[in-house]
Amino acid sequence: MESSPSAAPVSALAAELRAAIETVIEGKTEAVDMALTVLFAGGHLLIEDAPGVGKTMLARSLARALDCTVRRVQFTADLLPSDLTGVSIFNPQEHAFEFKPGGVFANIVIADEINRASPKTQSAMLEAMEERRVSVDGVTHELPRPFMVVATQNPFEMQGTFPLPEAQLDRFTACISMGYPARAAELTMLDHHVAADPLAALQPLATGADVLRAMAQVREVYLHPSLKAYLVDLVERTRSDARLVLGASPRAGLQWARAAKARAAMAGRGYVIPEDISALAVPVLTHRLILANQRNDRVSTADVVSDIVAGVPTPRRA
Question: Using CB atoms within 10 A as the burial measure, which of 11, 35, 81, 143 is most buried?
């Protein structure tokens, strides 16, 4: 098996960040690892779950562990697109317009309860998430690097919310749920987190430059042609499955490949293995797919994705 230069630095950085974040987020290693995978893949993360399970805390912990700019935007019905992208204001002293950056001008943008903003405001995120820039009054402004959106939403509360359109969902590399903590983890929370803010002790461990170096190493991770074909086979199956009315886009395949490379690098490997792809299928695909029969409570998009993965032969390791 061919491989790229050593991915050990990414693995070491991931281990440090994981340990730090888990001092705040108890017993959620899988969710923490997914957040780090998306970070090193250069993508965006959607955290979808019930209130009070740690969605925003995970986003804040990730941001706190990085020594870079962070902006938290509370999405509400009266939030304007210009609050996100920025606005040009006339300066009478200079006799010229000055650009005032909006909420997306940060390395880590925490979009809290993103589905509470109007569709017009939600759409203001599209260019930023895909192209890492925004256009205001005909002028393009580049966003800082690295740039990652960590959005949260509550899927159970429909009043006063606006479902994210497919175009925006497709820009999120992965969608995860936190789930309720295990009993032991919840007892530990009561011991350590009642009297003190767990975020207060969390110190930054990596700079934006460190993250950019890790992302560059992830891009060099080797993806064998047989695994590329395996990934494309899985994506194509979502487009032909009768249970789905909307399959995965080409963007989904690209982001899936980047996430697989990041997962390999975090494991200390310079090459992707089949498990790197199959293990990411559910978080990468489910939020992008639409069931043909949405009234069927017995079948979920996750079930369909699991069936598709089980039905596609796994390439043998070279």
Answer: 35
